[in-house]
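Morning F.,

Quick status update on the modeling queue. The single chain you submitted on Monday has been processed. Sequence for confirmation:
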Amino acid sequence: MRPMIKFTPNRDWANSGYVTPAGKRMSWVLVTLGLLLIVFGAWLGIQRRQFLSHAAHTRGTVVVMAESPDDHGTPIYTPIFTYKDAAGHEWRSKSGSGNSPAQYHVGETVDVYYSPQRPAVAELSGFFALWSGSVFACGIGLFFFLGGVFLIRLSRLPVRRSGPGVGM
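Structure tokens below.
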């Protein structure tokens, strides 16, 4: 028969949880960063919604597909388009988002939203062009927030150790 060994954990061990003190700080950083990104994404969405509520709608034409490489050398194609405002003046604008492969082609007719007060401010009509910034910021923010909450919850769990003399 094995001898009975009583294990008495010290105070630091009993309160340490699964996450180190540095990990606890990092979890709060993730929660804070996540909340900031969610707020920023919501702000972008509100700005876009306000723009659309006052924007005029017209048709335009893609005149150039600007090509620029991403970090890996893959070409990203961003449409440059022309459109006419209510007064009949022609404007030229570059979309705020690009794609690979190209989503549009030169000569294609597109829907355009522009600001009547500042007709040079315009964006193509499409979910990605209008909402990608807001959705991306909120999505990454939610990921960071939930990851931080998970680590905080994990740090509060009691540590279970196994081995000779533990729990006897």
